[in-house]
Amino acid sequence: MTKKENILSIFALGGVNEIGKNMYAIQYSNDIVIIDCGSKFPDESLLGIDLIIPDISYLQEHKDKVRALIVTHGHEDHIGGIPYFLKKLNIPVYATRFTLGLIELKLKEHRLLGDTELVQIDSESICYFGEINVTFFKTSHSIPDCLGIVFDTPEGTVVHTGDFKFDLTPVNNQYADIHKMAEIGKKGVLVLLSESTNAERPGSTPSEQIVGDHIEEAFMKARRKVFISTFASNVNRVQQVVDASLKTNRKLALLGRSMVNVVTVAMERGYLQIPDGMLIDAHEINELEPERVSILCTGSQGEPMAALSRLSSSNYRGVDILPEDTVIISASPIPGNERNVSRIIDNLFLLGAKVIYGSGSVTGMHVSGHAYQEELKLMLTLMKPQYFIPIHGEFRMLHQHRLLAESIGVEKKNTFIIGNGDVVDIENMTARQTRKIPSGNIYVDGVGVGDVGSIVLRDRKQLSEDGMLVIVITLSKSERRIISGPDTISRGFVYARDSENLLRNVNGLVKSTVNDLQKENLHQWNVIKQNIKKSVGKYLYSHTKRKPMILPIIIEI
Amino acid sequence: MTKKENILSIFALGGVNEIGKNMYAIQYSNDIVIIDCGSKFPDESLLGIDLIIPDISYLQEHKDKVRALIVTHGHEDHIGGIPYFLKKLNIPVYATRFTLGLIELKLKEHRLLGDTELVQIDSESICYFGEINVTFFKTSHSIPDCLGIVFDTPEGTVVHTGDFKFDLTPVNNQYADIHKMAEIGKKGVLVLLSESTNAERPGSTPSEQIVGDHIEEAFMKARRKVFISTFASNVNRVQQVVDASLKTNRKLALLGRSMVNVVTVAMERGYLQIPDGMLIDAHEINELEPERVSILCTGSQGEPMAALSRLSSSNYRGVDILPEDTVIISASPIPGNERNVSRIIDNLFLLGAKVIYGSGSVTGMHVSGHAYQEELKLMLTLMKPQYFIPIHGEFRMLHQHRLLAESIGVEKKNTFIIGNGDVVDIENMTARQTRKIPSGNIYVDGVGVGDVGSIVLRDRKQLSEDGMLVIVITLSKSERRIISGPDTISRGFVYARDSENLLRNVNGLVKSTVNDLQKENLHQWNVIKQNIKKSVGKYLYSHTKRKPMILPIIIEI
């Protein structure tokens, strides 16, 4: 790939055609600036995988050019890949005070704290990376201290929105700086990269304050303990829970590691106001009158090991949900999590709790942090970009976002729907999407990063569906006959004790297969193994309609 | 379990605290009548399982008392278990003309057709089973020819609603017989069993006709081919697709085996009117002008092997979705299927199609077949039962349904929320829930029914997450030393070629473990195996944070 010097290039290493692992890059001449480095949770087809992070081999190849990682905000899909990234490419990380707090938690976990330069910025900061000048603007989202980013280059200005909504009555002063956005737009934007999560939804997101009103109402009505579960990082939601507890004269307990960690960071850094003496420990809950206690807990997505799930199955030491307690789920289930959340709600009702659940619009207990169509159109209108790249979304969301851009006057040909690895090059004010760089999913499994590939996953899939059968035979080297075995060991296929006949027949089949081959003077191991696999596989499928993995093992003595 | 003679007993073998595998029973004295025998699809935790059916061991034990299986309608969660049931308990099956058609398809597949007495009934039929008189009433649902069932017993009347909604402007005359229901209620209902699927949803379901209007509008607007995907069994929806095709002068092709099968049954039996010459074969699609063709296909739930999924990945022989074609998804994704449906929509947009998708209320392309809260209240009001048993739903739905019953005057203590296997006994007009009969999930995997249990599933889970490592050593019987191996074979754990070091270290560890044991004169196989598992497991976890299944195999020569 040859490339001229003074080209402005934009590409994604994650975040387009998917929700998760956001990672974008702006390159001008010999300077590359990275935006975000997220992770993504695997879907159920990726058996045993813990986490997915972006493939950064292109950046490693060009590491002399990579100047900085700028982080728009502290959600996992924007910071979850940072520890893995820094192990490969140790560059300075720029983020706001709160976002840095969350990144530091993460680096501490990976024992990386202190190894990397962390630079605190705010919406008034200016940074220079070669000929790229970087400035920022405040946005509203479901986590404090979010930034949009402005890259001024000799070729023109590129704006990256980060995640945003327009909340005109936000909690804790987390205002979007619409005036600054208007100024940026007025000066002229060459390329806008804007997030697309809710591009399918008409209208505008309700304000976070609406949720506060509903929480307060539920707290007022509750005559016993109130449990409320939400994302720990939604500090403004947490603030509203604190406020409702205060108004109803309740002490507040925090359950779940991430809740405690994030609240601690938010308090230390001034993003959350909790009066002295209000927080209590879990073991103090039972010492107070039920109507004097509220409990904020993790697990709103039904995560099996999180606090809410354990509470719902009466499995949280020292804390019980009792009849007439109130439980509020202040979140919407992310697609894929519905069943786990439903199971928890069932269990909560079984415990006799009053459960307030259901999609945000029904209960008023949740609002999205991502702009709906009218807000996306407002961003597009403010920025009036010449070129538009919808990011942060699956294909249908990017597609709908393109239609929104068209509706406010961006020509269809000036919108680039890119995939991860696609590069948009801009030269002389003209943008083209012609080349591709390496990109992809790196799987994290345990401590292994990238060591689980398609073969291992294919094997796991087969093992998960039909289990396996190990067949061991010992052959005599000299006489070429079976001197021990066949021994069969089955796991995940049939329960051996119930299937003695089947396994006995397999043994017979293996013997006759091996003997037939010996008669034909075929002694190569791989021939014997292939024939065992074939005959046993055929027999088992015809008798069970299952295809376990068959592992013949031959020992020669 | 002793039981007096003249007791009326009601129980469920499937369908409560779950969605799926509905099976209920009414017993009076020595006569048991079964209502429905459904199946359920496994969730992702049941690795490799194809289907779940009810445990009918209680009925097998009392097979001399089981008189009949009455089927309310032809959905899988009401008929899917029938072939397995009949193999164990060959009793007459009663159902309406259309429902019988679908049951016959199923029996044909299992090669059971002709083995069982199939009795065709309609809403005017009367059946006698001992002292139980059975009559019926018509209901509206998302499949034709549905029945509610009335059991008159010496103890009183039991009504089972089947699945229903109140559609006052239904398609193809599928009216609910409200007058008959009112009469039944007026005569007095002792116990009502009513379905709870939508007990969480306020208001009423829109009429099926609304969908027809929207389909027609989309067909009018479309300038090229129209693809529409819905449940094959929703024959009234299919009728509306036929009507829209007719009005826009399009021929209609059917894609997908179940679509062809069900449409054939519906036409033969008079539940669907399709003009002669309107249906075309798939291979004729390309011979017509695109604006003269519509295609009705399976796969609205994102099923990977169904027609829509294959069409969306350009993998359906002879039929292509081209730019500007219209694709309508006339269904809502069932929880758990969202990701598969979304993937298909992404692919359809990539092909350039106009896709009409999203929840029914947004597009008007789908309405539910299950009563919402106001309709459930109407049923409760019509029947005015003394006792109420909410059925057909997960716990939170049953719980909400109980609240609805309370709201129209059923005393809380007279509602029984039962689990599968719980029995409600009624004697002298007094109901009690005191005893339990065997019930449960039977897993179907391939041809195996019930042979996959918790041990096999636990093994599949471990194998699916971290794979396995087989370690083979051959010991000399006489000298008690390793004469061959250790040989290690890994599947689904690490890719062996990338992990030579790790596996070499495992071999070393196995050798030293075995040698240490020999020195201590410990020769028992199980001791050697346990020690290998322990030391290798510990080593692997510390180096990979994974816990593969470790299978030590010892050959003694």
TrEMBL record, chains A, B:
Record: residues binding Ca(2+): 48, 50, 445
Cofactor(s) required for function per UniProt: Zn(2+); Ca(2+)
Binding of Zn(2+) 1, residues: 73, 75, 77, 141, 163, 392
Record's keyword terms, sorted: Calcium, Cytoplasm, Endonuclease, Exonuclease, Hydrolase, Metal-binding, Nuclease, RNA-binding, rRNA processing, Zinc
GO biological process: rRNA processing
Record-listed substrate binding positions: 232-234, 366-370
CDD domains, per the entry: RNaseJ_MBL-fold (cd07714)
Family assignment from sequence similarity: Belongs to the metallo-beta-lactamase superfamily. RNA-metabolizing metallo-beta-lactamase-like family. Bacterial RNase J subfamily.
Protein name according to UniProt: Ribonuclease J
Gene designation per UniProt: rnj
